[in-house]
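tmp note - Thioredoxin domain-containing protein
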Amino acid sequence: MHNLLTDNSVALQALMSETIFSTGFSVDNVPTATVQSEAVTFDSSTEEFVFQGDKTTGVLFILRYPEFPYFSPQAEEAFVKTIGALQLTPRNVAVVNLANPQNPNEFKRIMEFFKPTKITLLGVDPASLKLPEIAHNSYMRGRIATVFNTFSFEEMFADVEKKKLFWGEFKTFIGS
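out:
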């Protein structure tokens, strides 16, 4: 399968069945992965972690999507809309996929590398990072960072109540 890259509006209109809105950011210089024979080829990096965005802002999203480099297409759209509603963009937050074999699944190394103050676990079990139990849609304050544990976007797509619970707490968490 080849990636189709075009900015021709007529071609895009003919190919797309949905309306597309811009959030004001460009995907130029954003790492991508390719899908070949149903297997994901993850990005690589010379840094300790492979991630998207900016780690200097202190806002980190941790996910574990073995089927995708970062998010499924539907989850990525929801992610961009969600953070956009809070004046954030994919460029001013960091996103790390722990399914990428290059990324260490160790909370201490994550803290040392990203130096986050706000961490959102999107469908990642806190116990997998050797963190204490954190109920869904609640957070744990640490000395340096606060960790918000919530559902993956796929779980929220399947259950509207989970989405409502997430949104109410997430606004409070990011605003604090």
